[in-house]
Every structure is written in structure tokens, then in C-alpha cells.
Amino acid sequence: MKKKLHYASYLLVMLLIFSGCKKDRNEDEPEQTDSNKEFFVSSATSGSFTKVQLQALAALQGFGSFLPLIQYDVDFYKITYQTTYKGSKINASGLLCIPKGMTTTPALLSAQHGTMFRDADAPSNFPNTFTGFELFASAGFITVIPDFIGYGVSKDIIHPYYDMQTSGLAVTDMLKAAKYYLKDKNIAVNNKLFLIGYSEGGYVTMAAQKEIETHTSHNLTLTAAAEGAGGYDVSGMLAKVATVPTYPDPSFFALFMIGYNSIYNYNRPLTDFFTQPYATNIPGLLDGSKTSDQINAALPAAPSALFNPTFYSSLSNPLAETNFKAQVAANSFPNWYPVSPTRLYHGTADQNVYYETSQSTFNRFKAAGSAQITLTSIPGGTHETSVTPMMLDALPWFKSLAQ
What we know:
The protein has 14 helices and nine strands. By secondary structure, the chain is of the alpha/beta class. Helix 4 crosses helix 5.
């Protein structure tokens, strides 16, 4: 999800917001014994925001249609927790959003953000950054928004972009840390659990859904999931890229290949994947200081110009790069289908994550036996314009199941 900040207006709203914030960066850690304690590391207060302040922020950031759904003041916390990366425990982080003044016990919801490149955009940096999913807390859900590995406190790790297992665990482990924190602070939460995400967040949401439904050891029971434009069929996405003359977000490929090169220990020179000077320039472009627009401007829109010719031709050759393609296929949700109620969303005019990747995934899941899955097409929706329709459709659905 890419939201352009109008900084002058944003600073004015921040002045309003910070006047009402209560800061406490030295909050004590919980001391109780709990099965989820091992996942919790620390918490820090990010502020208390009124309904009016959140409405102002929502309007500023392009979520004006969400204003009637903003009902509650919200407390925000940065949570540091433990998760697993390449077989080892690491610290990760995210944002916990707790609605205030509810007369019913809220459900728990985890929201997964879209592809990002700047360290500053990590959700735990709220209120200096804003994903839009924070508004689900003001609509009545205790909401967690993981930063993902490679952002927040784990920013020194190369982000494992479109890796199913690490993506799923980053969500489930934060949920467990949040449940521990809530229990220790005597903050009531009911037994309903919802997942939602868009773009990369749609993929991560599906990865978390698979993790929850496959491994009962997490002690998490999913109520429903909403997943938008997630590119779940990663193999199909790459195959399509090999057939198009241009692609609007070459930054995605840079992040994807450098991530796979790291997490799967390929340790191959980037010239195996990219032409020069891009192979040399990509690590600097992905240093965490640049936006997707800045990175895209420094890379060619034509995949045939970006990729090493041998690697590019391998994308349409089933006998080439077999190890890489096997890993991509393993991250495309094979041999599984959703059991919980699931809604897929995708804009029909999306040129960043192809609509066909949702259609093929939906068809495969239905054929495998998924009885509670639907695909909602957003007519004429682009990658940037389809997130709000998804949120506005998913929220009342979640509310109908939340109590």
C-alpha cells in the first residue's frame, strides 16, 4: 500500500495529535507466567489518540470514506517480540492498537501492510507513519500491525520478501506476544481472531492463515481472513513477468531476488540475476532510506533490461533455474487450502500484482475443497485504489462475526 504523505498538512495534524499524547518509553514489562511469555520482549507507549484526532489523520491520508466507522479513542504501543528467522530467535517489532471506552469485549485483529522500502515507514514508528489499518482499532478491534522482519528493530536483516514461513511466523508470534501483554495488563479480549492484509500484506496474511490452520501448537483459532492483491501464486507472477514488455515496479524484483539470495543462502553474485549497473546499484537502493518511487526511477521498467539475459530467459524455460523455481513454487501455497472463512479481493485493473494470481489461487483452492472462500473483484481497481474498498467491505463482515 503506497500512501503519499502531504507533509505540511501532516505536520499540522501531528501538532494536534501530540498535544493529546501520553508518552511513556520506560513501561515495565509484564511479570506474570504465561505460555506466551517467551514471545514478549518489551513495550513502549506511542500515544493516546482521540476519535477526532484519528478522523483528522484518516482524512489527511486518503481514508475519508472510513470516517463514519471511527468510533473510539485508541492507545498505541510499540511491541518488541521474539520470532524465528533462519532457525534462530530474533527480536522483531510491531504496533499494538487498543480501543478505549468499548461496552463490549473487542476481538483481536492482525493487519499486514503492503510492500515498503523505507525503515521510517515501519508501522511501529506510528504516528510518524500511517498504514490505514490503525483505523480498525478505532472501529472496535484490538489491532496488531507487525513491522515484518527487516523493518523496525530487525531492520539490519534483509527482508525475506515473499517467504511463506518467516512471513507467517512474524504474525503468529506477534499475536502471541500481544495476547500475553493484554492478559498481564488485564485488558479484556474475546476469543475471535481476524486477519487482514493488502499487497505483500495479503500474501503475509495468507501465510499466517496457513500457519495457524496447519499448526495447532500456536493455540490460535482463526475466525476469518481478508486478503487483497497478495500475489499468492508467486510462480504465476514470475511467469507473467517474462511475457510483458514493461513492469511499473521493478523495485519489487530487486527486493524479491536480494531477499531470496539471503534467506535461502544462495549467496550468488547479483550479476547472476541483474544486468549492470543495476546489480551493483541495487544494494544501495535498498538501504532503507529510499521510497519505492525513488528506486523505480533508478531501475529500468523493462524486465528484459533489468534481468541478466540468462536469468530472464530462464523464467520461461522450465528446465532452467530449477532450484530457485522449486523454492518459489513452495512459497505459492501448494498442497493446502484455507479452511476458515476467507475473502480474496483484487482490482481488475491492477498492473502491479496481476489479477490472474488471485483468480488462479481461488480456482485452485476451490477445486481442492475450500468451501468458505470467495473472490471479490473490484471493477477498474488499480493496486493503489483497491485497498480502501477491501477495508470497507471486510470491516462490516468482521463485525458481524466479532461477538
